[in-house]
Amino acid sequence: DEIATVSFFQDNFGTTDPSELVGHYTYVGTDYVVDVTNSLNGLMAAFVQELTSIASGEGTISAWQYMIDQFGTGQSWDIKNSQHPLLGAGTSYNSYIYFGHLIRYDAPGNIAFGMVGYHAKMPLSFLQAGGHYAQLISKNPALDDGYDQSMIEAGYNYWFQRHSD
Fold first, then answer.
1. What is the Cα–Cα distance from 125 to 104, expressed in whole angstroms?
2. What is the pTM of this model?
């Protein structure tokens, strides 16, 4: 599927490639570009609540292991491969709007990983190394691409900006 209003992106940004459009501030309302801000924030809040429960009952290290396991491919926090109606596998969306920014189809999982990782008090470098490791053991072994790494950082910074003392 293609983005419904290809001419909008071509005319306004000079490209139709979502990876080149990431971070552009836009108010696009099309069938194939949907604002997932509330949906993604709701998912992440549920992940954080679950993680907090684990941490308070079993400790930080157990919570870290639990988080890593849950974000694994095919696991319950693997947004991209989930059955979520907007964000999961099988949807027709190539990109999304998140807080007014156009993001790639696979960004929500990386944003969530960064945000939940910050809440778990994991260092950003640890989370980004985890992204590289997950990619290296996947079907297409390579280092995590720069975009994925920047989305982990965006999720981490989002949490930090909204929850710092």
1. 22
2. 0.81
